[in-house]
Amino acid sequence: MKPIILIVDDEKHTREGLRDSLEDAFDVYIAADSSGALGVLERESVDLVLTDLRLGGEGGMELVDQILALPHPPIVIMMTAYGSVDIAVEAMKRGAYDFVAKPLNIDRLEILIRRALRSRKVEREVVELHHQVDKKFGLERLLGSSPAMEEVFATIKQVAPTRATVLIQGGSGTGKELVAQALHTLSGRPKAKFVAVHCAALSPQLLESELFGHERGAFTGAIERRIGRFEQANGGTLFLDEIGEIDPATQVKLLRVLGEERTFERVGGNTPIKVDVRLVSATNKNLEELVRQEKFRADLFFRLSVVPITLPLLSQRQEDIPILVAAFLKSFSEENQKPLPTLSPDAMQAILDHHWPGNVRELRTAIEHGVVMAKNGQITLKDLPAGVRSPSPIPTTPTPTPTYHQPLQPSLPPLSLTPDHFNLHNTEHRLIIQALEKTAGNVTRAAEQLGISRRTLHRKIKELKIHEDGDRN
Questions:
Q1: What is the dihedral of CA 450, 454, 456, 461, to 10 degrees?
Q2: Closest Cα to residue 121, out of 110, 132, 129, 133?
Q3: What is the dihedral of CA 379, 385, 391, 395, to 10 degrees?
Q4: How many helices and strands in the chain, by DSSP H and E?
């Protein structure tokens, strides 16, 4: 994929001449003034800006300041025909990479641009290397020790080094994008780009242009050639979220990219473009049902789901809740520069009792709310969101009339958990007791509610010395 550069000059012949001279080596955008330049920077992931020191009545220095204030600023090289070395040096002090004097020598300019881009690449690789050192198997943001999550982790580690397409399925808030990022990190080419597209947020025409790019003049408003997300992700990973939302025409084009040739054309173009992209997609819909309804192509479904990964709902892995709570408490206390709070027993009990229809995302938001609202170093029940304080109904199948009405354990000791040392033994004990009470001692149904096998539940009942009277298998 070619680096993207932006040329800003108020003289039309200069900016267009530079574009013509450089577009064989780079993807080039042009702008006549600051507003045009900032507009391009909002739309495109520009690697380098080449801007004149004088832009009509504007000063190029102000544009430099605006560019360098961006969250991820591109490299800036100044052009000047006025010999204003002092101003150019001031620009470099503010963060510009270098300056060149007009009239320009195109060969020397191209060498300077390449050197600047190579320097930026090395800087990013060093940052990425340090980031990788701090990672643990690329799964550091996916937390849990439940059997369901251990199975997910094992699948990620197995499939990540391959080129197989992966379809991640799961409810909203279960962490599908985190799984996609872990697959990329463990892919063997984590220095390449991870590019995400949320398909549901774009109209069919915009989605096609976003994925595959377009040529200049392809449609009204297409004033410049634009590279799409497939080209941006070349050599890396492209993550398509909510894949079930794409329209039939885009499905056909996507099917071709996933073929043996791995080629496509930009909108309005006829030149095949070949890419090397690892495709990972995600959905919270039942794609097989959409195939049966003829709303999604069967052949595309099979190519997308070479390896499916299904994420469990948070209610299906309740034993992971204390681990997630501890991690979120630490994260949000640091982010908000507050002391690490404790959780009162009734607050923790409300968290364990809640059904979490929004899954991990909802839990994360609830803990952030608690950290912000907590006083005197403790999160109490009233510090949690109202929806968490009130018991939420748990969808279940009809329960047979129990043969007895006494709970398996009449009174339970208060659950006292702190964020830095949760007593997982007590948590497991309480969760199992609650599941057995709700299912009238039916171990099979209790295991289903807990998301574990019947054999595992029997083993835990024995380990935790839980009274099994009333076990109806």
A1: 80
A2: 129
A3: -120
A4: 19, 16
How many other C-beta atoms can be found within 10 angstroms of the C-beta atom of residue 455? 10
Confidence band for 310, pLDDT divided at 50, 70 and 90: very high
Q: Is 118 within 8 Å of 3 (Cβ atoms)? A: no
8-state DSSP, 214: B
Q: Which of 100-104, 261-265, 434-438, 447-451 has the lowest mean pLDDT?
A: 447-451
* 148-312 and 315-463 have identical folds: no
CATH class, 315-463 region: mainly alpha
Using CA atoms, how far apart are residues 324 and 359, in angstroms rounded to an integer? 11
Q: Under a CB-based contact definition with an 8 Å cutoff, are residues 195 and 238 in contact?
A: yes
Cα-based torsion angle of the residue sequence 257, 292, 308, 297 in order, rounded to the nearest 10 degrees: 0
**Does residue 238 register a pLDDT over 90?**
yes
Enumerate residues 6+ apart whose C-beta is below 8 A from 384.
347, 350, 351, 366, 369, 370
Task: Give how far the C-alpha of residue 302 lies from the chain's centroid of Cα atoms, to the nearest Å.
Answer: 24
List the one residue out of 278, 186, 190 whose CA is nearest residue 240.
278
417-446: b (≥16 Cβ within 10 Å) or e = bebeebeeebbbbbbbbbbbbebbbbbebb
Q: Which residues contact 39 (CB under 8 A, 6 or more apart)?
A: 31
Name the nearest CA neighbour of 92 among 60, 44, 122.
60
CATH number given to 4-130: 3.40.50.2300
Q: What whole-number distance in Å separates Cα of residue 439 and Cα of residue 453?
A: 15
267: DSSP letter: B
Q: Does domain 148-312 have CATH number 3.40.190.10?
A: no
469: pLDDT strictly greater than 50 = no
Closest by alpha carbon to 174, among 241, 247, 243, 246? 241
Name the residue ranges covered by the structural domains of the chain.
Answer: 4-130, 148-312, 315-463
What SS3 state is found at 172?
coil
Query: pLDDT per residue over 446-460, tens digit each?
Result: 777 766 767 777 777
Shortest CA distance to 287 belongs to which of 165, 183, 162?
165
- pLDDT band for position 439 (50/70/90)? confident
**Is residue 471 predicted with pLDDT exceeding 60?**
no
